[in-house]
Design brief:
This protein has twelve helices and 13 strands. By secondary structure, the protein is of the alpha/beta class. A seven-stranded parallel sheet has the order 3-2-1-4-5-6-11, with helices on both faces. Helix 1 (10-21) crosses helix 7 (172-183), helix 8 packs across helix 12 and helix 9 (225-238) packs antiparallel against helix 10. The chain is globular.
Length: 291
């Protein structure tokens, strides 16, 4: 039996869709508050538990041999997940982490994610860890879809810093395909993979490519990084829910490039170009009246 956590999320729905296409019917773990209507319509079996509840999680894992853990490891739930696997006799585990663990900054989630990976590696499971870069694609994308919406309305883009630092966004559909490929690939046991787009782009190139997909000109106005960070730190002190944080801007001004050679070799990972992916996203958003 296979169980998927995070099945209602951005990546989770893509993974579940591919499993269904292969004839799999995974059990999906949901919280009481989860919107699981799509899973119910697909006729998938559901189990309800909170990742913070070890006993409930152990019960939910009963009879499970393969865990596909798409739920975030950044909230400190890895100890419960790993222990529940041990108690329930789970043998195989595919875990989604993130390349953000390699940041030179020290956000509080970094140590949590690093500890989560350590626990997985020492769990005794036949484990695989998959670390995507920034994920984009479909209207559920919280990264590039936001940029596309902005550029579809405004011809001016403020760039905080030089805009010359590199990133490699990965399309959610390509990532989901690699996750499914990993599940039954013995070569992936005991391996951690970085999954990225095919080639690095500067943030300026990302903006220009998205604007080109929209068929709109864009004028970039650069704002000094140090001043932007100081202003955002002040803003965070007075706002309970800031729409942008200084840490996010600092991350944007780090190079985030990763080789996916190992994933290509073991999982057949062959990511589409950013130009292809963002054009498809723009077309989808237009078709649905989102831009």
């Amino acid at each position: 039996m296979m169980l998927v956590t995070g099945a209602t999320g951005f990546l989770g729905e893509q993974v579940v869709s591919r499993l269904l296409a292969r004839g799999e019917r995974p059990v999906c773990l949901v919280r009481p508050s989860s919107r699981a209507d799509a899973l119910r319509r697909a006729g998938l079996p559901l189990r309800c538990a909170d990742l913070g509840d070890l006993d409930g999680l152990t019960a939910a894992f009963d009879g499970v041999k393969t865990l596909v853990n798409i739920a975030s490891l950044g909230f400190g739930d890895a100890p419960n997940i790993v222990e529940a696997c041990r108690r329930a006799g789970v043998k195989r585990g595919v875990f989604i982490s993130t390349t953000a663990i390699f940041t030179t900054l020290e956000p509080k989630t970094k140590s949590i994610r690093l500890e989560a990976e350590r626990l997985v590696e020492q769990s005794g499971l036949d484990w695989t860890i998959i670390r995507p870069t920034m994920i984009y694609g479909t209207e559920r994308d919280r990264n590039m879809a936001r940029l596309v919406r902005y550029l579809s309305r405004w011809p001016v883009m403020f760039v905080l810093g030089s805009g010359e630092h590199l990133q490699q966004p990965v399309h959610v559909e390509d990532l989901a395909g690699a996750v499914v490929a990993a599940i039954e690939q013995p070569r992936s046991y005991g391996q951690a993979y970085n999954l990225s787009g095919p080639s690095p782009l500067t943030f300026n190139q990302v903006i220009d490519t998205a604007a080109g997909a929209l068929g709109r000109p864009v004028y970039k106005v650069r704002f000094p990084l140090k001043l932007a960070v100081l202003m955002l730190e002040a803003y965070e002190r007075i706002s309970p829910r800031p729409f942008l944080k200084a840490e996010q801007v600092l991350r944007l001004n780090e190079d985030k490039t990763f080789s996916h050679e190992a994933a290509a070799r073991d999982l057949g990972f062959a990511p589409r170009s950013f130009d292809e992916g963002i054009r498809a996203e723009v077309e989808m958003m237009r078709a649905k009246g989102l831009i």
